[in-house]
Write a structure and sequence with these properties.
Elements (H helix, E strand, L loop, with lengths): L1 H33 L2 E2 L9 E2 L3 H7 L2 H32 L6 H13 L2 H23 L15 H26 L3 H9 L4 H12 L1 H17 L2 H6 L11 H11 L3 H27 L6
Length: 290
């Protein structure tokens, strides 16, 4: 019986482990090895071992540092905006409001659209749609092509990212709200808890597992954003929206610095891992067991 179970486990788990090894693990280890060489990515050309020189160069690379600053700024704004909007909509659709199902579907649909397609759609809206609205309303100081202004392009990227992922975060928060026992809410109301006090002291602590998941997803995805960044702004204007992944992509595929780009990618992985681990550890400490 145990031997049969072992075969069934291997049948279901084996393909997943094999795909993960081939697609993630082996390329990851290979990338770390490449980060210690100087190479242009062409197999026929020689690889020159340079040790940690690529890492030293990356940490003093002004453009890479600027992309890091922009990524941190983008991530902070996107995580706050996405979770705030997702949480508000989650409470609305679970408060017995009319058309709750329609609102839930409306907010979730953008998540089903690929980042590349979504970027191109919003690129058209910002360039043509905003111009029309500005001419009609006279509010040209607000409705203009944000993508051409270095001061507004990053906000445009935050807006599109929030619009895309808020629906997914909403679903996570809905599941968290539905796990809160109604008798606890009723008891809290009897004891005088209402409004903001009820949310902050009762509901939020009880739905912290959902908060942990939502923050982890939005934090990691915001750090790693690439497809929307590529199609919406391509890092412009004047590198104003060149985030981490875009900078690494340009270094490897446009500049032909494969080894140096891999060193940046390893540093990028370390930064994302540190921030996500700290976030998960911090929010898990606030989870309340029922």
């Amino acid at each position: 019986m145990k031997k049969r179970d072992w075969h069934w486990n291997l049948l279901f788990v084996g393909p997943t482990v094999a795909i993960f090894t081939l697609v993630v693990l082996i390329p990851f280890v290979t990338g770390i090895a490449y980060s210690f060489v100087s190479w242009d990515g062409i197999e026929a050309n020689a690889k020159t071992f340079v040790g940690i020189r690529n890492y030293i160069t990356a940490m003093s690379d002004t453009r890479f540092i600027q992309s890091a600053i922009k990524t941190f700024l983008f991530t902070a704004m996107a995580v706050v905006a996405t979770n705030a909007l997702g949480l508000v909509v989650a409470f609305l659709v679970t408060s017995k409001m009319k058309l709750a199902s329609a609102v839930r579907t409306f907010y979730f649909i953008p998540y089903l659209i690929g980042g590349l397609i979504l970027g191109y759609i919003w690129k058209f809206i910002f360039s043509d749609g905003f111009a029309i609205i500005g001419n009609v309303t006279g509010l040209k100081s607000i409705f203009f092509n944000w993508l051409l202004d270095p001061n507004f392009a990053l906000f445009a990227l935050v807006f599109v990212s929030t619009w895309q992922t808020a629906g997914y975060v909403m679903i996570i928060y809905i599941s968290g709200i539905q796990t809160i026992p109604t008798e606890l809410i009723e008891a809290a109301k009897v004891d005088g808890a209402h409004g903001w006090g009820l949310f902050w002291r009762i509901k939020l602590p009880l739905m912290m597992p959902a908060v942990t998941i939502a923050l982890f997803m939005t934090l990691s995805n915001s750090f790693k954003i690439f497809d929307t960044n590529l199609s919406l702004t391509a890092g412009g204007p004047n590198n104003a929206t060149e985030l981490f992944a875009m900078n690494i992509y340009n270094e490897i595929f446009l500049n032909g610095n494969y080894g140096y780009g891999q060193a940046k990618a390893v540093l990028f992985f370390i930064i994302v891992a540190i921030f996500t681990l700290v976030q998960v550890n911090a929010t898990k400490k606030r989870e309340v067991g029922l």
